[in-house]
Amino acid sequence: MNGIKIMEDFLQSTRAIDLTLTLEEGMPKWPTQPPFSAVTYEALEWGFDSYHRGISMCEHTGTHIDAACHFVAGTDSIEKLPLTQIMGRGVKIDAVGTGPRASLGLDKVLEFEKQYGEIKEGDIVFFHFGWDYKYALKPDGQEFLKDWPGIAPEVGEYLRGKKVKAVGCDALALDADGTDFQNHVILLGNKINIIENVANLSKLPPFFSCVGLPLKVKNGSGAPLRLVAFVDKK
C-alpha cells in the first residue's frame, strides 16, 4: 500500500494527544541541573525585522529521554538513537495510588497484563502515577520535586526481559525519590530508554500508538522529547 495513503488514513482515523510539557521559565527541574531560561535578542516592538530568543536548558529538561550513556559508561549518546526508537505501540499502566517514595511492584504489572493483554517486544511502556497532578511552575512546583514514586527493580528486570523499547513515567524520575537508580542501570544498560516528566497520561487508554522525536544532540546524555500519542477517534 502507498505510504502516503497509509499516513492519510491514520491521521483521519486517530486523534493526537500531546504528552509533552511546555518548555518555559519556572518549570520544575532536578536540583543539580540548570533551569530553563530564555533571553529575547530581537523583537518586532523594538524595531527589529523579526523576533527571536536564545534559550538555555539542561538535556533533561521537561519531557525528556535518557540516553544509555546517562548512567552506563561507554554506551551510546542520544544522537545515535534509532530514528524509530520511540515509535510503536504505547502501553499505559495505571499506577495512581502508589504512595510517596514507594515503588510499584511486579504484581501490578502482571495484573495489568491479565486484564488487558500482554506487554510485547518493542512496546513503549508508561506508568501513570498521578504525579503530573502536582506539576506547577515556580513558586508552586515544590510538591512535584519531592517524594515521587517509581517502579521496583523487579519491574525493570521484567520489562528488560520483555525487550520493550522504552519505559516512561509522569514523575521527575523512574526510580522512586531519586535516591537509588537501579532501574536506570537495568534499562539503559540494555538499550531501553527512559522517558520522564510525561504529561496527559490520564487521557490515554491502556494501548495506543506513540511517536517521540528527541533533539539530535551530539554526545547528549539525553534530550527534550516531543512526545505524541494517537488514539482511535471512536
From TrEMBL:
Coiled-coil intervals, chain numbering: none
Q: Which Gene3D superfamilies does the record match to this protein?
A: Putative cyclase
Q: Which GO terms describe its molecular function?
A: arylformamidase activity
Q: Classify the source by domain of life.
A: Bacteria
A Gene Ontology BP annotation from the UniProt entry: L-tryptophan catabolic process to kynurenine
Protein's name according to its UniProt entry: Kynurenine formamidase
Q: Which organism is it from?
A: Hespellia stercorisuis DSM 15480
